[in-house]
Design goal:
- The chain is α/β, with parallel strands linked by helices.
- The protein has helices at residues 2-16, 26-29, 52-63, 78-82, 101-121, 126-157, 176-190, 226-238, 272-290, and strands at 41-46, 67-72, 85-88, 166-171, 193-198, 215-220, 242-248, 261-264.
- The chain folds into 2 domains: 1-124, Rossmann fold (3-Layer(aba) Sandwich); 142-291, Glucose-6-phosphate isomerase like protein, domain 1 (Rossmann fold).
- The strands form 2 sheets. A 5-stranded parallel sheet has the order 5-4-6-7-8, with helices on both faces. A 3-stranded parallel sheet has the order 1-2-3, sandwiched between helices.
Length: 308
């Protein structure tokens, strides 16, 4: 989940700060031939601040001269003590093993960090930074307003999907990591096999899986890659895939593709990952609850992975 948050931040940082960003899974990062020195900032993202692989990764980066910034939820955790700087997400205790509010707060922290770096490097003007910051602040009220209605809609919708064996999640651009996160949540708590893909990559193999029994959850806001995403969704429809669309309020075209559409308010496209995560999480929750799964304590999982 933290890796997915970092992938979203890569889009933001490269867009607004003009700085190249590499995103690694900690268990892979620590064993690579790293090109890290004192000109590289290493950012570790962890809910607990105790994840073994992430700790080993930041220790190795520090040995190579890199400064380490940790984004973490638990005050005083090992990662925060060893880092050169810390951004606390202050999400409060997260009881469920599958991370939800910690992910949203990680995105918020990373967006604020992006704006701060943009200010330091003077890569975007003050007025734009202020507008983007206000969009982030406004997103909290937007989520609060839509939550009851969206949950009710998803609870009704999943009656046609809760007994599926497989699920695909697709998105493009900054929403591609949200497709990955949605698939992860579904497999974690409902035990349904789910995969996330960049929508443009379907034709390179995964589209072979599409048939009348394959449900596809597609993230389709009206953003800069909207037409491309819709084209990919039309390809799924042509192969009789069972489509759930998550899109922008007022986009009537979506209803011509499928009856299963969840509409969300239009926000700045770089805030979409925060807004569009909520229905993906709710879909996983409602399906898991309908299947009688233990949502808070899924089998075989631990809240903090403190061993390799």
């Amino acid at each position: 989940t933290s890796w997915h948050a970092a992938q979203v931040a890569k889009y933001w940082l490269e867009k607004y700060v003009d700085i190249p960003v590499e995103v690694d899974i900690a268990s892979e990062f620590r064993y690579r031939h790293l090109l890290v020195d004192d000109r590289v900032l290493t950012i570790s993202i962890s809910q607990s601040g105790e994840t073994a692989d992430t700790l080993a990764g930041i220790r190795r980066a520090a040995e190579m001269g890199s400064k380490v910034l940790t984004i973490c939820n638990v005050v005083g955790s090992t990662m925060t003590r060893e880092a050169d700087g810390t951004i606390y997400t202050h999400a409060g205790p997260e009881i469920g093993v599958a991370s939800t509010k910690a992910f949203i707060s990680q995105l918020a922290a990373l967006f604020l960090f992006t704006l701060y770096l943009a200010q330091i490097r003077n890569s975007i003007d003050a007025a734009t930074r202020k507008q983007l910051g206000q969009h982030l602040i406004d997103s909290a009220q937007t989520v609060e307003e839509i939550l009851p209605q969206v949950q009710e809609q998803i609870r009704a919708l999943i009656e046609s999907f809760y007994d599926c064996r497989d699920f695909l999640f697709v998105g493009r651009g900054v929403n591609f990591p949200i497709a990955l996160e949605g698939a992860l949540k579904l497999k974690e708590i409902s035990y349904i096999h789910a995969e996330g893909y960049a929508a443009g990559e379907l034709k390179h193999g995964p589209i072979a899986l599409i048939d009348k029994d394959m449900p596809v959850f597609a993230i389709t806001p009206q953003d800069t890659v909207y037409q491309k995403t819709i084209s990919n969704v039309e390809e799924i429809k042509a192969r009789q895939g069972r489509i759930i669309l998550l899109g922008s309020e007022g986009d009537n075209h979506l209803k011509t593709i499928t009856d299963d559409v969840i509409y969300l308010p239009t926000v700045h496209e770089d805030i979409n990952p925060i807004l569009y995560t909520i229905p993906a999480q709710l879909l996983a929750y409602e399906i898991a609850a309908r299947r009688g799964c233990d949502v808070d304590q899924p089998r075989n999982l631990a809240k903090s992975v403190t061993v390799e």
